[in-house]
Amino acid sequence: MGRPGPVSTELGRRATVGVVAGATAGVVGYLAARAAVRAAGGGARRTGAVGAGGDGHRTYRRAVTIYRAPAEVYAFCRDQPNLAESIGNVVRVDEIDDRRSCWVVAGPGRSEVEFPVEIVNDDPQVLLDWRVTDAPVPHEGSVSFTQAPGGRGTEVRLVVTIHPGTAGLSGPLLAADRAERLVYDALRRVKQVLEAGEVVRVEGQSSGRDAVPREVITQYLATGVVAWAVTGGTTVTGGPR
Amino acid sequence: MAGGDGGTGVKALCWEGVGRVAVRTVPDPRIDNARDAIVKVTASSVCGSDLHLIDGYVPGMREGDILGHEFVGEVVEIGPAVRTLAVGDRVVVASTIGCGGCWFCDTDQWSLCDNTNPNAALSERLWGQAPAAVFGSSPLTGGFAGSHAEYVRVPFADYGVYRLPPNLPDDAAVYASDAAPTGWMAAEMCRIGEGDVVAVWGAGGVGQLAARAALVLGAERVIVIDRYSDRLDAARENLGVATIDYQRADVQEVLEDMTAGRGPDACIEAVGMEADNDGGLGLYDLATGRTGQSERPVAVREAILACRKGGTVAMVGVFAGLADRFPLGALMHKGLTLRSGQPHSQRYLPLVLDRMARGDIWTDYLTTHSMPLSDGPFGYELFKYKIDGCLRVVFHPQA
Ligand SMILES: NC(=O)c1ccc[n+]([C@@H]2O[C@H](COP(=O)([O-])OP(=O)(O)OC[C@H]3O[C@@H](n4cnc5c(N)ncnc54)[C@H](O)[C@@H]3O)[C@@H](O)[C@H]2O)c1
Ligand SMILES: [Zn+2]
Ligand SMILES: [Zn+2]
Questions:
Q1: Domain A12-196 maps to which CATH number in 1.10.287.110, 3.30.530.20, 3.40.225.10, 2.60.120.560?
Q2: Domain ranges of chain B
Q3: CA nearest to B34 within chain A
Q4: Confidence (pTM)
Q5: Calculated CA dihedral for residues B223, B228, B232, B237, nearest 10 degrees
Q6: What Pfam families does the record point to (chain A) (predicted)?
Q7: CA-B275 nearest atom, ligand 1
Q8: Integer Cα distance of A21 and A115 in angstroms
Q9: How many angstroms is it from A184 CA to the middle of ligand 2?
Q10: How do residues A64-99 score in pLDDT, each as one tens digit?
């Protein structure tokens, strides 16, 4: 099932932070961890290249239509175990209270980043806003749910604004178009889990890139044609039935 | 079959680079998702779509990718969430992968599934939205390993895998994966009415099956166009259709004559992006030095120009990017309908199996060559250059 990262059994069913909020927070957390690792390892390759906003904040917007009723999509987004299922980098989520929880997110290698997520607005089946302030990558997010026309399900709109955090971390982070990609991937994963029941994976599948042994058994195109011509057009192998 | 890491490897036909394929020993496919199944492949057919991949017309192919998307075999392993299959089932598998749960799958438009293409973001940049995944294809359509292998992983196995009647041989059933559904869909897109004349460009497996479907769906007359006489002969002898050799005659003129100036009521394009541009409207490209474009929409042009006013052009040949010199004026002023798509295999597969059983669709004559997978590269040469009367090659990976 999408091979999510290890999930702590501490993940309670009483959890209150939503999956989309969490998914995005998780992604942003992953970026933070990645940036931190880079900084620790001798630094960022790039700085700057930040979008609009005097403080360098950057806003990402993505939307998907999920073929499920708004009530179901919202309910899914309030149920934390779904979260770990849907996205890959969350190690653990500890609840602090009704609105706040502490997220532990895996970064590259064995690194982990911990930060609190606070729900600032919860309008059941309509809207969920959250904020992450005390983190290497402070950000705020909002996800809204509206009925799509013609029985097409729910329009899910996600807006995430990332603020520059600790100098040296935000540069490579915000410069990366990857952030937008990851935010979108998280949305798509939620859609896939809700509609298809799993996030189908293709990486790691069998291919000739891992040939065992890496040996070519039959040669390339064009050699056989020569053989065919040389034998005067008689079929070398196979043959018409 | 040893799924997982303990396997000893399986033979598979891999893409090695433009114009090159080879059989390699690759790791055993394994259950990666709970809804996967592993199928032991007993027959796997070549297809014109593979040529577009082999010849480098579709972007994104990586060295080592396993080809093949039309296949039958036996279920040897199922994931914990698979509900409708059992180990030992003899099955045919749909070429397009559908999740069964999105709006598109729910409305029977399986090749447009929202959830089976893991590289959707990539395809969206090129095409706006992403289509479903297809076996043995470029990452643009999922990048899943193909069926020219001893074993293949089948994702979402509850939705694309169909049990076969015992009396239907592998070499016939293999056409139900893709070629027959594509041909049937092409004919259905034509909305054939009484007295309709249907012209089909391309006498490959897809064109032949489209021509037959058009007859079954009530066409008055079907005309098949190609340049290979053995393929045209096969169409005449096996389907009773009329044919035009486009290297010996002016297609537009002949069609106009055959329909007394009306033009065919519907036109099916079953040629694709590597159309031969030696003759006819391929001259557009030669004259303007545009032969280097990634697509050669020669047969689509022909179809649009020939088509009756208010008629339908069904384009099932595969294209990937942008095309120049497209007859927009003719399309617009003749009020034509242009329809297209990968086959919704899951929609048409049961229907096609039924038609095969009833003797309405036959495929024996299409498999001109049958060989073990180890001869795969040679099989593709025969198929690519259409030599030795080759119409389709079916590989037998267990042979
Ligand atoms: N829509 C789908 O999902 C789907 C499924 C299967 C195949 N296809 C596509 O259908 C096409 C045909 O597949 P196939 O397996 O029959 O391939 P094929 O290579 O056997 O047949 C193609 C035929 O087109 C003929 N041709 C080339 N240029 C022509 C021209 N200018 N006018 C008339 N005929 C011309 C060739 O001579 C050849 O006989 C390919 O593009 C393939 O990718 C699409
Ligand atoms: Zn095909
Ligand atoms: Zn689907």
A1: 3.30.530.20
A2: 10-178+343-396, 179-340
A3: A1
A4: 0.87
A5: 180
A6: Polyketide_cyc2
A7: 28
A8: 13
A9: 31
A10: 999 999 999 988 877 655 655 566 677 788 878 878
